[in-house]
Design brief:
Number of domains: 1
Structural class: mainly beta
Strand content: over 45%
Number of strands: 21
Length: about 425
């Protein structure tokens, strides 16, 4: 190793340990990935009162279990090309952003996995008064379910394609310590038929659905940097088909009531944590869900060179697996961003998901881990390489699998 590089590593390591001994950061710490880096950050292209930020990613990945099977694993190398853009206003008040991306997956051996995903969307923020704003967003995406999706039919020749149309609106008013937020959102899922091995298609019309959500939140800032809140929400899921392939009505409705705390930027920690109660009701013979609700999203600025993220969330998600009303998903995760050198950022993550199918005995447990190294080369280019591991342990016979993937990527930006 060259002496210059060795010196830079020692300086970075010294900064890490010295920072651990300091009592606090500046008033508002900035995470490793959020820190401005003028020599590497894209400037974008000025277009009147807007700024356009185009980008292009090209990558290659080796996957040792393409079909996510327990036995008879098939490996392959696939290539991705992903152009994207963001067009954001530079106005002193209000904001408009339009963004979109497209990703093409091209496999070396398994052409059945070739696919193209894309999305486009816009969001608007209207600053009505000081402390009062209206935010709206709308997007449309065409994507594919992963091979590990529990609802994938047996004998699927290709991944299932689906589209998602999303819209939402949120009103926030906080002129002083008291604040109130009201919001609603709509999601439309449309699943295409799944091509089957040997010919024919599996009809997924009974999965097509609309999801309506509404919420209200009241908060109180106890002191600068800390607030408590109460939040309630109501949701309905309405399927296009009155009865699914097994002859059952899968429409549902549910509500949640939570209390929690928000930690605004302090010397060490910011984020949100909440707990409460959640209920989801289904038509007979499906089983209702009544459970403790919880969630957390915390960021710990351990040192100026290291940022740690912790997440936890409980959610209920629709399924068309026979006998199951929904999946009760409890997820936990941690990730670490570490600036080893000014131009070298290391990222690691570990996540766990416990997915219980209500009404039947199936229980899927996922463990995943990832490592990524990102090298900032110039303002216009960076490179990354990484590894990802996924393991599913299922109580359903033949549903276990492990997967290893190694990837490399080049990112270009203006």
């Amino acid at each position: 190793m060259r002496a210059g590089v060795f010196t830079r590593v020692l300086v970075a390591a010294s900064g890490l340990f010295c920072a651990c001994a300091t009592a606090a950061f500046a008033d508002e710490p900035i995470g490793v990935l959020d820190r401005p880096r003028p020599e590497y950050d894209a400037k974008g292209l000025p277009l009147g009162a807007f700024r356009l930020r185009p980008a292009l990613d090209v990558g290659a990945t080796f996957d040792d279990n393409v079909f996510r099977t327990e036995k008879g694993k098939e490996s392959d190398v696939y290539y991705t090309i992903s152009p994207s853009f963001s067009l954001r206003s530079d106005w002193p008040r209000h904001q408009l952003e339009i963004a979109g991306s497209l990703t093409r997956y091209q496999y070396s051996k398994h052409a059945s996995e070739n696919r193209t995903d894309w999305d486009v969307g816009a969001n608007v923020r209207i600053d009505v008064l000081r402390g009062t704003m209206i935010e709206t967003a709308a997007s449309y995406a065409l994507s594919h379910e992963p091979r590990s999706a529990p609802d994938e039919p047996g004998g699927a020749k290709e991944p299932t394609e689906f589209s998602l149309a999303h819209s939402e609106v949120k009103f926030t008013h906080q002129p002083n310590r008291f604040g109130i937020s009201l919001g609603a959102k709509f999601d439309r899922f449309d699943f295409k038929p799944t091509p089957l091995i040997g010919g024919g298609e599996f009809n997924n019309d009974d999965r097509d659905r609309d999801r309506y959500d509404a919420f209200a939140k009241v908060s109180y800032e106890m002191r600068p940097g800390a607030a408590m809140f109460l939040r309630g929400s109501y949701a309905q899921t309405r399927f296009d088909d009155r009865f699914d392939r097994n002859g059952f009505d899968r429409d549902s409705q549910g509500w949640r009531a939570d209390a929690g705390f928000e930690f605004f930027p302090t010397h060490l920690v910011k984020g949100e944590a909440f707990a409460g109660y959640a209920s989801e009701s289904f038509k007979r013979p499906f089983k209702d869900i009544n459970a403790v609700d919880y969630g957390a999203k915390l960021t710990w600025y351990a040192t100026p060179l290291m940022t740690l993220h912790l997440t936890a969330l409980r959610s209920f998600n629709p399924t068309t697996i026979a006998g199951a009303s929904s999946t009760d998903d409890q997820s936990f995760g941690t990730s670490l961003d570490y600036e080893l050198l000014r131009d070298l950022i290391i990222q690691t993550s570990v996540n766990y998901l416990d997915s219980k199918f209500e009404g039947i005995s199936r229980n899927d447990r996922y463990l995943s881990a990832a490592f990524n190294a990102k090298w900032l080369i110039t303002r216009y280019m960076n490179a990354s390489a990484g590894y990802a591991y996924t393991d599913r342990n299922s109580s359903a016979p033949g549903r276990d699998f492990t997967d290893n993937a190694v990837m490399a990527n080049l990112h270009f930006q203006l």
